[in-house]
Sequence to fold (214 residues):
Amino acid sequence: MKRNVTTLILCGFLLLGYTNVHAETFTLPELPYALDALAPKISKQTMELHYGKHLQTYVNNLNTLIAGSPFETSDLEFIVKNADGAIFNNAAQLWNHALYFEQFSSAPQSQPGGELATAIDKSFGSFDNFKEQFNKAAAGLFGSGWVWLVKNEDGSLSITQESNAGNPLRSGQQVLMGCDVWEHAYYLDYQNRRNEYINAFWEILDWSVIEKRL
Ligand code: MN
Fold:
């Protein structure tokens, strides 16, 4: 009897070990700056809610949803490209926000340089034209979603709008920069004035991070 109990306990431990090895668990991506580093453009309070609560919820939901699903052992990019419904929504929101928060800095640069500057000039005529078109897309997106600067398969750059969790990886595009225009990104700081948030967005960008994505 004693031996049976020991075997049972051993089997339990083995099973636990097996489960842990095979379950992918996503965590909140680390911020490259302090929560108050972007203030007053994006306040600490917005960061606490947007990064600390909204993004954490996407991470938690994703971990719950993939457990026992075909995506249990998949990496994030694979899930974003292949999942649908709630798993896609939470995976894409994790991917989108990781990219979004990574591209800001308390020591921003006003314009890109190097190859990215050349590519922007080539695709949009000038940086000012690019900025104008991006702002128009961000201001004009109805409801919740994202505006992206993407690189197409032919090397050209485009601005795209996506609703909700929409992600350009699904269209085979490479993402360079993203602006979250969900109200939760700006409502505490700017209420309904999305344009003011978009103007502030340009003033906290770290172009060296964006250039590395090219
Ligand atoms: Mn958001």
About this structure: The two ends are 65 Å apart (CA to CA). Residues 8-22 have pLDDT under 50 and may be disordered. The first helix runs from residue 2 to 22.
